[in-house]
Amino acid sequence: MLGLFANVPAVVRINDLCTHSCVSSSFLHNHNVPCSVTVRDGVVIESTSGPVHVLTVDGWYDSRQSFCLAYLHGCDVELGRDWLTSINAILVGSRIQCPLPRDVERLLIGHTWIFQPKGVYFCRLSYE
Prior knowledge:
Helix content is 14%, strand content 39%. The protein contains 3 helices and 12 strands, in the order βββαββββββαββαβ.
């Protein structure tokens, strides 16, 4: 599906088999998206917090969380179980169902859901 990462159009894949969400390192470097660098046990680790915007049936999620960098094929951003769990997502085919009001109230810090009335589009996604 199409979405936005750091306000740049991105191909987003949802993968419930992956434990952590990640973003393509080439996508970040090609679009000059800022990232953080930390060193743990002598290993350099790059991460970024997005935000990522993902369309649902009647709106979109706007999420800011930690995304690790990875070599991804076929997508720019891969949303894993950590993201799906944090928003309590329900998949309908390849799309995310709009959340129940109680789930919107329970969203973790850094995650919001924005209602989009039918016929209103919040942005134009293209690779011009």
